[in-house]
Write a structure and sequence with these properties.
By secondary structure, this protein is α/β, with parallel strands linked by helices. It folds into two domains: 314 residues, TIM Barrel (Alpha-Beta Barrel), CATH 3.20.20; 87 residues, Sandwich (Immunoglobulin-like), CATH 2.60.40. Helix content is 26%, strand content 18%. The chain has a seven-stranded parallel β-sheet. Strands 10-11-17-13-14 form a five-stranded antiparallel β-sheet. Strands 12-16-15 form a three-stranded antiparallel β-sheet, with no helix packed on it. The structure holds alpha-D-glucopyranose. The site of alpha-D-glucopyranose has 8 residues, from loops. Alpha-D-glucopyranose binds next to loops. It holds the Pfam family Alpha_L_fucos. GO terms for molecular function: alpha-L-fucosidase activity. Keywords: Glycosidase, Hydrolase, Signal.
Length: 433
């Protein structure tokens, strides 16, 4: 197994979905959804000319948002390749753009000090040897299916493995690989495809041989280095057969992975920050997607969201990077992350005056608002105390109460940094009110 140390330390990466579908600008599954023939889809190939492609600006946007790795689609389900593959004509070098896109992307990430990731689709709607199934754009076209009835998955396997070899030998060190996806047993997709179809054991062996340090996901249908919940937040640390696993949630800005012009269903920066925090509090990463447009630009809406996340990360990186879950139980609407003796309380809603933290009485030697390093004082309440008039009720034994400012700090998710005492409880208690 490769070392996942950098991955679980860094916590936050950028996903980039970019390809011919970016021109259609209505979801990366457009060919499937609209059942487009190769000829109909070809119009995007013939007009692919991203004159504003500047991977340095992508890498800088990722870095400014606090991300440390970027994962780009080398080929999506439509089969279009962003590099000069020897194994197909359906590639960027044959479009009006005429140049490789992957090399400059890899260089830009490296120059900005970011780790490099590739997404590669196992599914391929363009390759003639890929047997038609329920995901395929031509699934209702009897004539097409008849003409492809001898499609041989073994031949497609050679193509898949051959392209992965190209990707992992031509661009230097690749840190991360996201295969997408297996769907064996899915009735609506005609029984689907899985490890036998891709020869997943052989594929993973090839990947490990060519790039021994790489991290690979689990979507070949056999275990990899991490698992990939998509478009939902797990309700706790993730496990497989009762064993904790490394995981990374992949999330969109607006529900679509590819550029989707008329889709305004944007998550707020605050929600996205909460998702990042929530994931780290459950020992997970966040891979947040952008879908650059047909000219190769990250659009202004996405830029704004990233910039806002970046402003928060700039001030609160300490509560994310190198952090994981805590054994303490966070209060309602709060999330804890922890790194050694630093416990970070993220408040998703701002309470009035006080917050009560179970189990922390006598365990905190200092507390401050991370935003401006202003002290947050501890309040002593007697557990037996009855609430009346101006006297608040006592809290259960062992609870630490903090006194908060009335005004929520001007940041989407305020964080209180708690310096845990390594001494025995009680000795360090310092009631200040
Ligand atoms: C899905 C979709 C796809 C997207 C991916 C990202 O499997 O098929 O369009 O690329 O998830 O995780």
């Amino acid at each position: 197994m490769s070392s996942t140390a950098w991955f679980t330390h860094d916590r936050f990466g950028m996903f980039v979905h970019w390809g011919l579908y970016s021109l259609a600008a209505r979801h990366e599954w457009v060919q499937n959804r609209e059942k487009l023939t190769d000829e109909q889809y070809r119009v995007y190939f013939d007009h692919f000319e991203p004159d504003k492609y500047d991977p340095r600006s992508w890498a800088r946007a990722a870095k400014a948002a606090g991300m440390t790795y970027v994962v780009l689609t080398t080929k999506h389900h439509d089969g279009f390749c962003l590099w000069d593959s020897d194994l197909t004509d359906f590639k960027v070098t044959n479009t009006p753009y005429g140049k490789d896109l992957l090399g400059p992307f890899v260089d830009a990430c490296r120059e900005e000090g970011l780790k490099v990731g590739f997404y590669h689709s196992l599914i391929d709607w363009h390759h003639p040897a890929f047997p038609v199934d329920g995901t395929h754009p031509r699934r209702d076209d009897a004539e097409y299916i008849a003409a492809h009835q001898y499609a041989d998955i073994a031949e497609y396997q050679l193509y898949l493995h051959g392209q992965v070899r190209e990707l992992l030998t031509r661009f230097g060190t690749i840190d991360y690989l996201f295969f997408d996806f297996s769907y064996k047993g899915r009735k609506e997709w005609w029984g689907g495809k899985g490890p036998d179809d891709w020869d997943s054991p052989g594929l993973l062996a090839l990947v490990r041989e060519l790039q021994p340090g790489i991290l690979v996901n689990d979507r070949t249908g056999i275990p990899g280095d991490f698992i990939t919940p998509e478009q939902y937040q797990p309700s706790g640390p993730m496990t497989r057969d009762g064993v904790p696993v490394v995981w990374e949630a992949c999330q969109t800005l607006n529900g679509s992975w590819g550029y989707d012009r008329d889709n305004l269903d944007y998550k707020s920066p605050e929600l996205l920050i909460r998702m990042l925090v929530d994931g780290v509090s459950k020992d997970g990463n966040l891979l947040l997607n952008v879908g650059p447009n047909g000219r190769g630009e990250i659009d202004p809406r996405a830029h704004e969201v990233l910039a806002e996340i970046g402003r928060w990360m700039d001030r609160h990186e300490r509560s994310i990077r190198g952090c994981g879950p805590s054994e303490f139980t966070a209060p309602a609407d709060g999330r804890y992350t922890q790194r050694g003796d630093r416990l970070y309380l993220h408040l998703f809603s701002w309470p009035m005056n006080h917050v009560h933290l179970p189990g922390l009485a006598g365990r905190v030697r200092y507390a401050q608002l991370l935003d401006d390093a202003s002290e947050i004082r501890q309040v002593h309440t007697d557990p037996g105390q009855t609430a009346q008039n101006t006297q608040m009720g006592g809290q259960p034994e062992g609870t630490l109460t903090l006194k908060l400012p009335i005004r929520k700090p001007d940041t989407p998710v305020p964080v209180i940094e708690l310096f845990l005492s390594t001494e025995s409880p009680a000795a360090e208690t310092r009631p200040t009110d």
